[in-house]
Amino acid sequence: MGTKCHIMIVKNIEKILIIEDERSLSRALEIKFLKAGFIVDSVFNGEDGIRLLESNTYSLILLDLVMPKMDGFAVLTILKAKKNRIPVFVLTNLNQQNDVKRAKELGVKDFFIKSNTPISVIVDRAIEIFKK
Amino acid sequence: MKTYKTNNSENYDIALKLEVLAREKESTRRKLVITAKELALTAKEKEKARQKLVIIARQLAVAAREKERTRRKLEVTARALKKLHETLEKKVLERTEDIERIRSKNEAILASIGDGLVVVDKGGKITYLNRSFEEMLGWNTKEIIGKSMVQVVPREDQNGIKVSFKERILTQVLSGQKFVADLTNPFYYVRKDKSRFPTSSIVAPVVLGGEIVGAVEVFRDITKEKEIDKAKTEFVSLASHQLRTPLSTVNWYSEMLLAGDAGRVTPNQKKYLEEIYRGNQRMVDLVNTLLDVSRIELGTFIAESKPTNIIELVQDVIKEYSQQIDKKKIKFSSVFGKNIPLIQVDPKLIGMAVQNILSNAVKYTPTGKKIGVSILLDGKNILLEISDTGYGIPKEQQSKIFTKLFRADNVVGKDTVGTGLGLYIAKSVLEQANGKIWFISEENKGTTFFVNLPIGKHKK
Description:
The structure holds two protein chains of two kinds.
Chain A: E1 4-6, E2 15-19, H1 23-35, E3 39-43, H2 46-55, E4 60-63, H3 72-81, E5 88-92, H4 97-105, E6 110-113, H5 119-131
Parallel strand pairs in A: 2-3, 2-4, 4-5, 5-6
Antiparallel strand pairs in A: 1-3
Chain B: H1 2-7, H2 9-112, E1 116-121, E2 126-129, H3 131-137, H4 141-144, H5 149-152, E3 155-156, H6 169-174, E4 180-190, E5 196-208, E6 211-221, H7 223-258, H8 267-298, E7 306-308, H9 310-327, E8 331-336, E9 343-345, H10 347-363, E10 370-378, E11 381-388, H11 409-412, H12 422-432, E12 436-442, E13 446-454
Parallel strand pairs in B: 8-10
Antiparallel strand pairs in B: 1-2, 1-6, 3-4, 4-5, 5-6, 7-9, 10-11, 11-13, 12-13
């Protein structure tokens, strides 16, 4: 449900999972990451994200925090419990220090405030990770 | 005749005698006539006198009647006066009772005012306090009457730092300051049991014959107001977060359009898109500022202090504005003292304060004028000075300059981007770091802001 699959033959065949309930933002990320050559799956809540994570392998998770059904913190808690090793970028508009702190404690690789971050910066940061 | 004479010599003699007698008789008669006339005259006078006497007697009778009347009148007046006196006495008694009643009523009113009320003498000793004072602070009259208000009831700021004797508004009012209301800075009164409550108070001097003989302080527990204020701040915070999502959408899509993700854009389209992007960016900045303010007010800013090189921090901020400084052809100078130690502060927060002060200097200094920044050691503190030769702050508005959303009249027309939040944020942040901020300014000559930061430990 609400799952899309795009496959492109390019240099980066890393698979990315976008968990973001705001459709317009999710689509923008999809477009940008597809352009950069990633394979992208998008879901609109945490529950669907966890479900996909059980049956798929991803190289990177882009995770929103405020979402219906299951929010980002719940997803992070489950991932931590499962000893997840996939890097997670939190993309949120919450920037209370305790939110940042809590997310980092739950093993987040990077934390972006969406309104303050150009989308290209997020893509660049992802590419940077896979270069290493 | 001689014969007659001879013969009648005797007769002659007799005749003579008779003549004499007649003459005498005549004389006597005349005398009698005169006497009769005199008598008649006397009788007339006597009559006149009698008549006068009658008149006098009448007059006397009238006078006597008059006197009697007057006497009667006096008697009446005396009675009336006596009555009046009695009435007066009664009235005085009544009035005295009235006054007593009013006095007790006034006292009852004072005692039952919902706000705390305390009256002190010239020396700051408590001479009266009302029931609300007792209830709010946990002291009763007997315990503290005659004692120093400032000593018995400590006042603290938000961070629990005790306000010194000299800085207490009561002390300031007693030393001759006209009138002080402290409604903007929240402070707390500490109860007898050491717990505290937020309060706002107004202190006014009691002046008698041109001399300050004491002061009256009225204070209120503003816990409820603070709660409402908190709700408002939380709302601003929530609304700002909600605003960020559509702002992100506009940001990202205009960025993608500019990057040619949806196909090539013409130079004109690019210009328009850049306008959209910039406009949106300004909205993002505004939302970020509002969030900073709400965080300051909610106290959710957690200062993460670490040893910080203040010179580097300030230089980084200057770098952010170097483009604008160049563009306005501002003559920029900086002086950094030697051996400035690291200070224990949160670099992000202090950076934010410095940024707000410097951005004002850049914004409100016309093209070609000067801005100077200096950092010097001042005893156990760091003194940062940011001066400009810009528009300055009108004298009558200087007291409001740190107030939230306040913008001075002389710059409102010159720059539309200001929010009136920058200096409020700077002050809040610096005070949280135990620092101080103040300024001197003259309209059309310029402004210098001073920031004092202790080298020692950062609180909270």
